[in-house]
Amino acid sequence: MTNIYKYDIVVVKFPFASSLKYKARPAVATIQRDSIITKLGKLQDNDIKNLNNILDMIC
After folding, report:
1. Which residue of 5, 8, 9, 43 has the fewest CB atoms within a 10 Å radius of its CB?
2. What average pLDDT score do residues 24-48 get?
3. If we measure between CA atoms, which residue out of 24, 25, 33, 26 comes closest to residue 6?
4. Full-model pTM
């Protein structure tokens, strides 16, 4: 797999609660790498700023 960095847009395994199956869902990369299927791209600088502002408000 290619190198994954913070703010990369990735596809992750999103598990179903009632089975061992999962759906592939887009996400922004975090430190947890084991559920990443592939990399799609990277957030733009303005999107990174907006994401950080939102995270500051909810955390």
Report:
1. 5
2. 88
3. 33
4. 0.72
% of the chain exceeding 90 in pLDDT: 47
- The set of long-range contacts for 13-20, using a CB threshold of 8 Å and a minimum separation of 24, is 13/37
Q: What's the CA gap between 44 and 27, in Å, rounded?
A: 14
CA gap 5, 52 in Å, rounded: 15
pLDDT of residue 31: 67
Query: Looking at residues 44-54, what average pLDDT do you find?
Result: 95
Q: How do strand 8-15 and strand 22-28 relate by DSSP bridges? A: antiparallel
Where residue 51 falls (left for φ over 0; alpha for ψ -120 to 50; beta otherwise) is alpha
DSSP 15: E
